[in-house]
Design goal:
Blueprint: H1 16-24, E1 28-33, H2 70-84, E2 89-94, H3 104-114, E3 120-127, H4 134-144, E4 148-156, H5 160-165, H6 172-184, E5 188-195, H7 202-213, E6 219-224, E7 227-228, H8 232-240, H9 247-259, E8 266-269, E9 279-281, H10 288-302
Helix pairs in contact: 3-4, 7-9, 9-10
Length: 313
C-alpha cells in the first residue's frame, strides 16, 4: 500500500479526491442512492427510534427518492455531475439507512445493476456492523472481485457511555467482529466517526481515532455533530444544553486526530454539510469551505500533517 506524501498534494492529509485522481486519473463523483430500506435500530430488531441524531430520513438526507427506479435516481444526479466535470467517472453510493439489511437477492439485484451503468468504477455500501449476514459477507467478497468496493461502517465513538446515550445499539465488539470479517475478504473499510457528541471530551475524540489507527481500515469520515430539527438529539439539547463545539475547537480536534492517523488511511471527509432548513446547531457548519480552509491553515500554522503523531498512545 502506497503512503501519502502531503508534498505531492495541495493538502496536508490524504484526501479522497487525491486518492481517486492517483488511481483513476480523473475526477470521481459519488452518486447517492436510496433502496427504501430501513434500519434494525428503527424496526425493533435491536432498538427503536434510531440513533438520536438521525433525521426521519436516517442517513439518506442526500440520497435519491426511493420511489424512483434506481436508474432514474442515478441519471438525474449523473447529468448534474457531468456539467461540473465532463470527464468524471462514478461511484454508486448506497447511502440511505442500512444497506445490507434486507433481502439478499434484492440487494444483489441492485448492486449488480449499477455495475452495468456507464463509467461506474465502484460501489460504496453504507451499513451497520450488526447487519451483515454470513451470506452477505460471502457475496460481498464476490462483488469485491468485480468492482472497487468499499463498505462503510458507522462507529461514531469508542466511548460506550456515549454510545448508549446516542442509542447506537451496537457494541464495540460487534464493530470489531465486522472489521475482522471484512478484512478476511480483503474488502476496504470506511469508518464514520462524530466529533462533539454530548459530554464527550477532547480525550474521548482522540481515543476514537487512536483505536481506529490500530485497525486495518482503508478510510475514515470525520463528522461534526449537527443537531437537526425533530430528532431525539434536539430534545436532549433543549433539555440539557450540552456544549456544542465552536469552529475553532472543532478544527483543533480534527487536526489533532489527523496527526494521529497513519498516512495511508484515506480521509474521505473532515466536516459535514447539513441542510440549513433542518439545522438547529451549529450554524458555522453551513460554511463548509471555511471549515476546510481553517483546517488547512491550522496545519500550516503547526507545520504538521497527517501521521506526524501516529505513534503516540
Amino acid at each position: 500500500m502506497s503512503c501519502f506524501k502531503y508534498s505531492d498534494s495541495n493538502k496536508r492529509y490524504y484526501t479522497l479526491d487525491y486518492y481517486y485522481k492517483k488511481k483513476y486519473g480523473c475526477k470521481i463523483a459519488k452518486i447517492s442512492l436510496n433502496l427504501g430500506l430501513t434500519c434494525p435500530n428503527k424496526d425493533g430488531k435491536v432498538g427503536f427510534g434510531g440513533c438520536t441524531y438521525c433525521s426521519k430520513l436516517g442517513s439518506g438526507d442526500f440520497a435519491g427518492d426511493p420511489l424512483l427506479p434506481l436508474k432514474e435516481q442515478f441519471d438525474s444526479v449523473k447529468e448534474m455531475m457531468l456539467k461540473k466535470w465532463p470527464t468524471c467517472k462514478f461511484i454508486a453510493y448506497f447511502q440511505a439507512n442500512t444497506n445490507t439489511y434486507g433481502d439478499l437477492e434484492y440487494l444483489k439485484k441492485n448492486w449488480e445493476e449499477v455495475l452495468t451503468y456507464q463509467n461506474v468504477v465502484g460501489i460504496n455500501i453504507s451499513t451497520r456492523p450488526d447487519s451483515i449476514s454470513k451470506e452477505c459477507y460471502d457475496y460481498l467478497e464476490t462483488l469485491n472481485k468485480k468492482t472497487d468496493l468499499i463498505v462503510e461502517l458507522g462507529l461514531q465513538t469508542t466511548n460506550e457511555k456515549t454510545a448508549k446515550l446516542i442509542n447506537r445499539c451496537c457494541s464495540l465488539k460487534t464493530f470489531e467482529d465486522a472489521v475482522k470479517e471484512l478484512n478476511k475478504r480483503n474488502i476496504k473499510i470506511l469508518v464514520h466517526i462524530i466529533n462533539g457528541l454530548p459530554y464527550e471530551t477532547k480525550e474521548d475524540m482522540l481515543n476514537t481515532v487512536k483505536y481506529l489507527n490500530k485497525l486495518d481500515i482503508w478510510g475514515i469520515k470525520i463528522h461534526m455533530l449537527h443537531i437537526l430539527k425533530d430528532t431525539a438529539m434536539e430534545k436532549l439539547y433543549e433539555k440539557e444544553h450540552f456544549h456544542i463545539l465552536s469552529r475553532d475547537e472543532y478544527v483543533s480536534v480534527v487536526c489533532d486526530q489527523l496527526e494521529r492517523l497513519r498516512e495511508e488511511i484515506v480521509i474521505n471527509r473532515v466536516t459535514g454539510d447539513p441542510k440549513i432548513d433542518d439545522l438547529v446547531e451549529p450554524f458555522w457548519l453551513t460554511k463548509k469551505f471555511c471549515v476546510l480552509n481553517e483546517i488547512d491553515k491550522e496545519f500550516v500554522r503547526r507545520n504538521s500533517y497527517q501521521g506526524k503523531r501516529k505513534d503516540e498512545d
